[in-house]
């Protein structure tokens, strides 16, 4: 059995740790970004008293004439076409609902779905109209900040190490064993409850720890970043990946 | 206790993992998460400690005040525990939601320390039947990430190790009334011996096996847990069962043995860290809350 206790160490600033040359221009709400009126204002900024002022806390990004502020931590804002992973917390109670849906989905179940529409108050409407969406079976969920999930063409990845991962745009990452039959994807509504093999479990645990360590270092999450992290972690034991010296 | 809702499939996955001794984060059934301990974080207390165990964050402060001894134990001081479940920890603790859990933890701590050998209460006595030191131990739950009792007991032990009680002298006046004199030197203090202070090891039963240091997800899969309070020599001072499920007497015995084994290792690691911290001296870099 292993037990490790240590004294806390102060966190190093990220730019020093990674050797980045350009220091990010960090702002908090109310900070003036620039007094030059020749710029177009993007997300996270507003114009006040002939100055461009930040409305969120984050780093300033400049693309030619467009200035926007990318927030460090945000609540998820839905966009049409995003893939999300969600947990059922409440359901509408009506007679038809009881008869039909309860056989398939219970409270607490995890599903993957696509955003169909966004309402003006920020609520999103989801659909699972393709076979690749639906109820999720056995696996591990990791909750991260939505700003760390990179926007990509596809969010369902089958990693060569033996597991698959769904990177939900809302920050919910689902890691699960790759199903053997290719025609039965992660969706469908009947969950497979057979025991998962030990080799698959090790891969899934290692991936989960890699994702957590990437998040602690505030790195973007996409399939290649997770894969590189996985390969770099192979020499260490799975439970050691989360120790500060290994990260 | 804070709880997360899990789907059936996730619970099955966790249970099968525990059977095979490979938990979700790669640990074995008897492995703890990495623990960070720091003492002397609150300056206006006699002793304090902060413990971080995964996502669980506990802050303990000890204040020593003078009071009158209890009637049935006139030559001993005593400890008073108070646990505050901060609303920062989880939304369930908003308003009065955390009071029940706080009282449960405080009563468990009282039971553990309610024997002669945990803390040398006679050393807390100033003059019998008149004055004694009362140690008010305040526990603050900053974040709830599973395995509260273990983290709290580690923090209490570290805070008691860090407690410095000023030395006092009792002077007899001419009229016979007593005067208590505090020494002038602020560093002239006595330290409590925490050799026999027990720590709690929580064993959660998941499926047929039990795990140590469960995360919130694992606690949601477990129906019954056993809290075992173990001293550094492996002596069990108190045992308590929590949860709705039932426990077989044989499994209780197994869990107790595991608790004793794990407890001894826990104590040695904690003592090593506390001694290492003390050896760094007063100039050590303090990380505190902004590190």
TrEMBL record, chain A:
MF (Gene Ontology): RNA binding
Q: Is the keyword Transmembrane helix in the record?
A: no
Task: Give GO terms for biological process.
Answer: CUT catabolic process; exonucleolytic trimming to generate mature 3'-end of 5.8S rRNA from tricistronic rRNA transcript (SSU-rRNA, 5.8S rRNA, LSU-rRNA); nuclear polyadenylation-dependent rRNA catabolic process; poly(A)-dependent snoRNA 3'-end processing; TRAMP-dependent tRNA surveillance pathway; U4 snRNA 3'-end processing
- List the Gene3D superfamilies: 2.40.50.100, Nucleic acid-binding proteins (2.40.50.140)
Does the entry feature the keyword rRNA processing, yes or no?
yes
Q: Where in the cell is it found?
A: Nucleus
State the Pfam families in the record.
ECR1_N (PF14382), KH_6 (PF15985), S1_RRP4 (PF21266)
The residue ranges of the RRP4 S1 domain are 90-116
Highest taxon in the source lineage:
Eukaryota
Q: What GO terms fall under cellular component here?
A: cytoplasmic exosome (RNase complex); nuclear exosome (RNase complex)
Q: Output the CDD domains linked to this UniProt entry.
A: KH-I_Rrp4_eukar (cd22525), S1_Rrp4 (cd05789)
Q: Which residues form the K Homology domain?
A: 139-179
What keywords tag this UniProt record? Exosome, RNA-binding, rRNA processing
UniProt domain Exosome complex component N-terminal: residue ranges:
26-63
Membership in a protein family: Belongs to the RRP4 family.
Q: What is this protein called?
A: Exosome component 2
UniProtKB/TrEMBL annotation, chain B:
Got a GO cellular component term for this one? cytoplasmic exosome (RNase complex)
What binding partners and quaternary form does the record give?
Component of the RNA exosome core complex (Exo-9), composed of EXOSC1, EXOSC2, EXOSC3, EXOSC4, EXOSC5, EXOSC6, EXOSC7, EXOSC8 and EXOSC9; within the complex interacts with EXOSC2 and EXOSC4. The catalytically inactive RNA exosome core complex (Exo-9) associates with the catalytic subunit EXOSC10/RRP6. Exo-9 may associate with DIS3 to form the nucleolar exosome complex, or DIS3L to form the cytoplasmic exosome complex. Exo-9 is formed by a hexameric base ring consisting of the heterodimers EXOSC4-EXOSC9, EXOSC5-EXOSC8 and EXOSC6-EXOSC7, and a cap ring consisting of EXOSC1, EXOSC2 and EXOSC3.
Per the record, the similarity remark reads: Belongs to the RNase PH family.
Where do the Exoribonuclease phosphorolytic domain residues begin and end? Answer: 32-166, 196-261
Which protein is depicted?
Answer: Exosome component 7
Task: Quote the InterPro entries the UniProt record gives.
Answer: ExoRNase_PH_dom1 (IPR001247), ExoRNase_PH_dom2 (IPR015847), ExoRNase_PH_dom2_sf (IPR036345), Exosome_comp_Rrp42_subfam (IPR050590), PNPase/RNase_PH_dom_sf (IPR027408), Ribosomal_Su5_D2-typ_SF (IPR020568)
Cell location: Cytoplasm; Nucleus, Nucleolus
Question: Keyword Cytoplasm: yes or no?
Answer: yes
Gene3D superfamilies reported for this sequence: GHMP Kinase, N-terminal domain
Q: Which PANTHER family did the record assign?
A: EXOSOME COMPLEX COMPONENT RRP42, EXOSOME COMPLEX EXONUCLEASE RIBOSOMAL RNA PROCESSING PROTEIN
Q: Which SUPFAM superfamilies match?
A: Ribonuclease PH domain 2-like (SSF55666), Ribosomal protein S5 domain 2-like (SSF54211)
One GO MF term, please? mRNA 3'-UTR AU-rich region binding
- Keyword annotations: Acetylation, Cytoplasm, Exosome, Nucleus, RNA-binding, rRNA processing
Q: Name one GO biological process term.
A: U5 snRNA 3'-end processing
Q: Keyword Chaperone, does the record have it?
A: no
Q: Where is the signal peptide?
A: none
